[in-house]
Amino acid sequence: MTRPNVILITTDQQRYDSVGINGSKFIRTPNMDRIGMEGAVFRNAYCPNTVCTPSRVSIMTGQHLSRHGSYNIGTNPPEYRTFLSHILRREGYRTHHIGKAHWHPWGASNAETMKPDEEGTPFQDFAGFESAEVSVGHATWGIQGHYASWLKQQGAELGSFKLKRLFQQDYNETGEWDLPSKWHSGAWLAGRAIDFLKKQQKDRPFYLNLGFQDPHHPHVLPYDFVNRVHPNAVPVPEARPEDDRNIPEHIPHFRSGTLIDSRFNGRFEMAGNGKYAWGAYYSDEHKSRMTRAYYYSMVQLIDDQLGQILSALDDLGLTDRTLLVFTSDHGEMLGDHGIGQKGPLVYEGVTHIPLLMRYPHGFSSKQVDECVSLVDIAPTILDFAGVEDDIRRDGCSIKPRLQEGKPLARKGIRIEYKEEPDRIRCKCWVTEEWKLAVYSGESFGELYDRKRDPGEHCNLFYESDFQSVKSALMTELLSDMERSEPVNDRPSRV
């Protein structure tokens, strides 16, 4: 069997509707669209968690946070032996990472927060990878690591790039950045990726892991970037927050900026939600349109940079024998339901993410409507690479679905959230028809009819007519949790 090269590309905080091939007419993403047209477009792909580290560790391990333990940002990762990087390296792959990782806490000393030398020499033996070039942070607060070393080599003065904000009070920090596009973190990533591709040996497969910092806030653009989404073309949420029925107890806190002072917050400020009064922020239509336009324009910038990588694959003759996966760690609320950014939420804006796969030698182009999760990425890549091991994973390989059209073994996918072991915790079950969310120790929950209420404005969790549906979904959720429980060998009765 010829083993494929593997490129796994992860953006940060990118919504499903930010890709043209996913049905959005207001955005231009020809390179993301190309991956989907030449490969597989997943219509119901979901993140396993709605903040960075848990979801990113799930991508690398194929496991949910209830198994790998990285339950929030700021947590330490599990053993690298469960990481895709370690396994493929062990199997003979040349493994390299470029860009954002966020598998480790950024506020502590570890592999990600080490400073590279002035030459930007790649780290060795990084999180299971043979080598790595790392960036930390986002946009205006993301000039760190190997990216910063590269900027210095270009002659840049790191403290000289100023931000001109559009608004005085702006949680998204929307504005014009005094940084040329050629020095953007995505330009660095694309250039380093192309350099890596040019140096690969034909007789040894490679695994290249790429982590774009964008479109995570701050919502900023290089001053000379012109391929932008016009604010008037950006749709604003159709329904008003006050139109939502039977909302859970914690939701009003997102809108009023009081979540940090509520009983739901833990010892650290909740990811994406300090004293942010999102309700008032997104009720200002001008501010809402502008910050959304900058966000979607950041995606178009990524698409331009992605196009350089795709062209390099073509020029080097690597396209047909490379399994390319493009996705994001989670989405962004961006004003839906009067909420911004992320946190303990199960709404589509933050859970529904883009997922595109292409492998011309492996499967033909297709659309996949079944629900899939980011925990399915590692098992799928290992399956295509012909790797078998004894690591227990929550995810399932999608290879049989892509190659033979076989239906997936699950009825839905699971999403988990844990702010702290003694704070707001949630388990969610998503099928093509329904979405159920249960909160540990709480009387409230969520149930949405995805077909009749795609905007999730009518919570049916308390409705008597839907208790049988809720019970059936709860059983499916419990069955999925049991399906992935570890089971040791039992050689005798006693």
From TrEMBL:
Keywords of this entry? Hydrolase, Metal-binding
SUPFAM superfamilies, sorted: Alkaline phosphatase-like
Q: Where would you find the membrane-spanning parts of this chain?
A: none
Identify the residues that the record assigns to the Sulfatase N-terminal domain, covering every copy: 4-387
UniProt-listed InterPro entries: Alkaline_phosphatase_core_sf, Sulfatase_N
| Name this protein carries in UniProt | Sulfatase
Q: Which organism is it from?
A: Paenibacillus gansuensis
